[in-house]
């Protein structure tokens, strides 16, 4: 089978596109303590679910892909895990706070 340059280019771009959306948080167990906020989180292997413990009882909710990462809607706050694999945003009543999560262990 012979591929032409446009076909090879298209295959390469498809591979890069899927790599760019890989989730750096996948399968990780993290803690964060910064800017007066602290807690723990765990992300499943395919970044579709987050386990979250902060001030209240732990919650497990689905994650959805956003332009900047993956977002989950918890009972009291929303959380967005950014693509870099260590920064997160917490949205609480219209206020956004940022924190840096570190791998546990």
Which outline best applies?
Answer: globular
Q: Give the SSE order as H and E letters.
A: HEEEEEEEEE
Q: What is the count of helical runs? A: 1
Residue share in helix? 10-25%
- Structural class, judged by helices and strands? alpha+beta
Find the count of extended strands (DSSP E, 2+ residues): 9
What composes the largest sheet? 9 strands, antiparallel
Segments where pLDDT lies below 50 for 5+ residues?
7-20
Distance between the termini: 49 Å
% residues in beta strands: over 45%
The chain-level mean pLDDT equals: 85
Explain what the structure shows:
By secondary structure, the protein is of the alpha+beta class. The chain has one helix and nine strands. The protein has a nine-stranded antiparallel sheet, with no helix packed on it. A hairpin with a 2-residue loop joins β1 and β2 (37-43). The N and C termini lie far apart (49 Å).
Q: How would you concisely characterize the structure shown here?
A:
The protein is of the alpha+beta class and 105 residues long. It has one helix and nine strands, in the order H-E-E-E-E-E-E-E-E-E.
Supply database-style keywords:
105 residues; 15% helix; 1 helix; nine-stranded antiparallel beta sheet; 9 strands
Please specify the SSE layout and strand pairing.
Blueprint: H1 5-20, E1 29-34, E2 37-43, E3 49-53, E4 59-62, E5 64-65, E6 69-73, E7 78-82, E8 87-92, E9 95-103
Antiparallel strand pairs: 1-2, 1-9, 2-3, 3-4, 5-6, 6-7, 7-8, 8-9
